[in-house]
Amino acid sequence: MAMNQDNMEEMFPVVDEEGNITGAASRGECHSGSKLLHPVVHLHLFNSKGELYLQRRPLWKDIQPGKWDTAVGGHVDLGESVEMALRREVREELGVTDFVPETLTHYVFESARERELVFVHKTVYDGEVKPSDELDGGRFWSLDEIRQAMGKEILTPNFESEIQRLGWV
User: Fold this and answer.
1) Tell me: the pLDDT tens digits for 45-75?
2) Does residue 89 lie in a domain region?
3) Which of 34, 70, 76, 100 could form a disulfide with 39 if both were Cys (CB 3.0 to 4.6 A apart)?
């Protein structure tokens, strides 16, 4: 399968707002406007200087191409726990395996296309970050730089609302 598109047949769990699995549906079904609630994981990766790593979304993505986004974000696949999905996504997206995640919160994110139950984590990590070919690179940002970029179509709206929710900006 070409890497430069998402696999619409991939199966995701369908959950209630507490994360209990109630069924299953394909990526295509979940992103079609059906509003089937499905779990995703986010990791905010800080270095010890307090800077936050952001990834740049590639231009081929169907959602928010070219914008800067949370260091790691990905879907929980059918049969995976939140922790398993988080570790898989962090390895796949950033090449990082030796990190200690701290769970911050979970909330329901709704857009015109979908509803996601977002499990938010953070970690402090000073090792090497090797963004995958599926990303358009990434870098560390100071919180000041992030504040200055807010509302200017540079960052994804999802990222902006999440860091406001967390009280970081």
Assistant:
1) 999 999 999 999 999 887 899 999 999 999 9
2) yes
3) 76
Our CA angle for 163, 137, 53, nearest 5°, is 30
Q: Which of 133, 129, 130, 136 is nearest to 56 (CA)?
A: 136
The domain in which residue 116 lies consists of 11-165
Question: With the CA atoms of 121, 126, 127 and 129 taken in that order, what torsion angle do they form, in degrees rounded to the nearest 10?
Answer: 60
Give me the number of domains the chain comprises: 1
* Nearest to 160, CA basis, from 79, 150, 148, 5: 150
For residues 27 and 43, the answer to whether their CB atoms sit within 8 Å is: no
| Averaged pLDDT for residues 119-146 | 96
Tokens of 40: 């995703």
pLDDT in tens, 119-131: 999 999 999 999 9
CATH number, domain of 55, equals 3.90.79.10
The reply to whether 6 falls in a domain is no
**C-alpha separations of 86 from 15, 48, 150 in Å:** 17, 21, 26
pLDDT tens digits for 15-28? 999 999 999 999 99
Q: Residue 138 domain-assigned?
A: yes
Alpha-helical (H) ranges within the chain are: 27-30, 82-94, 143-149, 157-165
